[in-house]
User: What shape does this take?
Amino acid sequence: MNNVFCLVPILILATTWLYFLTCMTPENANGSIKLTFPTSLQELRELASLLESYYNLNSYYVIVLFCSAYLYKQAFIIPGSVFMNVLAGALFGVVKGFPLCCLLTAVGATCCYLMSRTFGSSVLHKYCPAQIKFLQEKVNKNADRLVYYLLFLRLFPMSPNWLINLLSPIVGVPLHLFFLTVLIGLMPYNFLCVQAGGMLASLRNLDDVFSFTTLLQLATIAVVALGPSFLLKRNRTFRDSFQEVDTTTETKKSK
Assistant: This one.
């Protein structure tokens, strides 16, 4: 339990860095940029408009500011990644914003993974025993095809990614597989959000981004990702059955 308190200095340091970036922001024609995470489309539009006007003159600063805020939200599992992805589309466009968001998502989730592994084991075992047991069983069951199962979890639109980030190190998901499946598995989600950023002015609500059709498409992609897993399982079952028959035949011959 005491390990959790070690997170406090890390949180303070990260928050101080964001505050420092805010204080270093000079004023422009539209006023000073304030580091506030948007919670609505209206706030997002205002922030995007302000950052766009400043990006033309101070692009490196805006990139550092955006990356720092994105990693902060991902590492400390603060809700609202959709707003950051849409903001990336509005600021950088799809060509630059999409790969940037994919990379930041993977790096931020990995920071969460490392902090959970280092400081959160005892707390998670105390407050999330059922979730740990469930995920542990799934990981063990899919051990020989774990990458496909992890991709399915990331691609499926209803998966609680924040919880998966926290529990993955506890149930023994290797770091390299974790990073890779976050990077690839969340690409469709990130692309949709970043693409919507280019149409930010015309967006009425988030339902325009995540319509029923869009969610169905993401779910279909997730199911397709499980295809190799089923093939591997079927092949292993066939191989085991064949070996069992072969062993039985050899036993009869020896008699």
In short: Confidence is low (pLDDT under 50) at residues 237-250. The chain has twelve helices and no strands. Residues 81-119 form the longest helix (39 residues). The chain has one domain: 2-254.
